[in-house]
Each structure stands twice: as structure tokens, then as C-alpha cells.
Amino acid sequence: MNEQVPTALAGERVDRAVAFLTGLSRAAVADLVAAGAVRLGGRTVTTRATRVEQGSVLEVDIEAHRPEPALVPEALEIDVVHADEHVVVVDKAAGVVVHPGAGNSRGTLVHGLLARYPDLAPVGQPGRPGVVHRLDKGTSGLLVVARTPPAYESLVAQLAARTVDRRYAALVWGHPQPPQGMVDAPVGRARRDPTRMAVSSAGRPARTRYGVRRVFSGPEPAALVECRLETGRTHQIRVHLAAIGHPLVGDPRYGGRRGDVGALRPCLHAERLGFDHPGSGERVMFESPLPSDLAEVVAGFEEE
Hints:
Pseudouridine synthase; 29% strand; globular
């Protein structure tokens, strides 16, 4: 597709404009943007929130989009913390991908959930039924999945209103100063590598609160930090902590590979999840202890 932006779409987000002009879903457009298949005024679009101007030339390589194959339920081992007729709360293991995507067409958390809860199939977006938020493949811990359309709408609204309590345990290099604070910096696709995220003025607003729990002196200075998300951008905690000079231990993608401390993945765990239950309206809270692989890494450091 190669078209000029009409007057009616002037000022709209580029993902909405592309969806309107092509008839593709927003999820499909998001995949096209991530693949570098959308250009505006001759420049590759790196964030879906970019605004379009009347008369600008919008180029879309629609062939880069491939419809998601039908999801086939798979009997997979999943640690279900809580399940009722409205929601499922899962303690995701590290190494598990939440939903299908490039290079991950099978064996995802969604495939396993569909085998156990087939009623999830029509809920939410195609290809990611019931999913309202994600965790990176290498991140372990808690996430909630909606089982009904009303539950989905409720949880999405709570995330948008920033009333969902999402707290993470992170092992970082160095000793953050001040020991408590907030990183308020927009996050978007890195210009030179759209598979990476970065602090960028063209990105979306992102805020991460942090607080140091424990500090370690060796084998190199490090700290166990609690992070609380106020927004939920891709790789947000990893990018924010790296941006203030304290990357996650075990995270080579964002500068965290230093020495041999036994970390086989980024040391990040979603340990607490709280939200208003879509059925009862009551506040519910779930907690997950640090998994054994991360606890072992932490134990290898000497506390000050």
C-alpha cells in the first residue's frame, strides 16, 4: 500500500491510520510496525503512537503480514495460582513465551491455557486469547488472563487507569542512588535495531518506581531492587534500569552481562500482582516467591 494520508485521518496515530486504510487489525498493524514494514514520509515508523499528517505518504508492506495460524491447544505444564469463572492467575516459568509470535508458533503459555480452559478462545485479541498483559520470555512470575469478554474489558481498563499493582524483584549491578526513586523516561523502539527498546523522545510515556532492598559488595557491587510499574511498556524495567546505569544481572541485551555469576537469564521476577476482581469487585492480591534459579544467583553475592 502506498497512499497519502487523507484529511479525515490527520493527527491520528499511525497504527489507527494503517488499520483504517488496510482493514487489518491493530494487532496485525503492530506486528508490521515491529517488522519495520511501515514507512511515513519515507522514514521507517518505530512506534505505533507516531501521529500522521495530512498529505504525508504512508507506505505499508502488507505482504510482511501473515495471518496467525489457528491456535491448537497443547497439554503443557502450567503453574496456575488461581482460577475461577472470570480469571486465571498464572505463575509463569522463565523461558516460556506468553503468546504466539515470530519464531514461536507453538508451546506458548496461551497454547497450554487453551488446553485447560477452552472457553478462553474467543476472549480478547485473535492469536492472544485472554491476554491483557505480558511478561518477557526470560522473566518469571505472575500474570492474569481473562476468561470472559467482560473480565477482559475490566482488566484492560484497570491497566489503562494504572490501578493494577505489578511489582517485580530485580537483581541489578551497582548500588542505585538514591536508593528509592522513579525513572520517568519514554520508551520506544531503538532506531538502529527495532527488536530492541530504548529510552527515546519519540517513545511512549513510561514510569518505573524502584526501591533498594538489599545491597551486595561482591563479587561485584549489586543490589536487590523492588520495581513497581506505573506503565507497562515492552522491556520497560530492563530499559529503565539500564538507562540509570544499573542493568539487570544476566541481561546481555541491555548491558547486564558481567562476569560469571551463574545467571542464565535476566534476573527479573514478577512477584506481586493485585487488581480489582472483575466478578466480585473486591481487591485481590497474589504473591510469588523468588524462584530457585534466581535465589541461587542472589545467594552467590556477599551482603554488605
